[in-house]
Design goal:
alpha+beta; 9 strands
Length: 123
């Protein structure tokens, strides 16, 4: 699960992310995502998964899909077995057309503390 706080696999500590935001599941070799009825939504390739406060249906996730939760944008790399593509070889950061470029954060703890302070200020 994905959320702003609590015991989730992925935690994004920002106010636009709900405490319980989305659920990612795996079934028969495929990954799926479902919005848990959030106010600010979960976006897959720029499309909101459901209306505000309405739990979405499951949507299949594919290689190079773009997932946005709050201000975080993730480019998904879904491969069979241990295969990789030219876009996700270790240490390789190559821009793709119309896709966001990943950046490296040099000091995640500091950034996390700043984000956490901002979240607490907004509560």
């Amino acid at each position: 699960s994905i959320g702003r706080e609590g015991n989730h696999v992925a935690v994004f500590p920002e106010i636009r992310v709900s405490k319980r935001h989305a659920t990612v599941s795996y079934c028969s070799g495929k990954y799926y995502i479902m919005d848990e009825g959030t106010m600010n939504g979960t976006f897959l390739n720029g499309t909101r998964l459901s209306l505000q406060k309405v739990v979405s249906e499951r949507f299949e996730l594919s290689h190079l899909d773009e997932l946005r939760i709050g201000s975080t944008v993730l480019q998904l790399h879904i491969h069979a077995n241990h295969d990789t593509c030219k876009w996700c070889e270790p240490g390789l950061n190559v821009p793709t057309p119309n896709k966001p470029v990943a950046t490296t954060i040099s000091e995640p703890p500091t950034l996390y503390k700043q984000s956490n302070k901002e979240t607490n200020r907004l509560k």
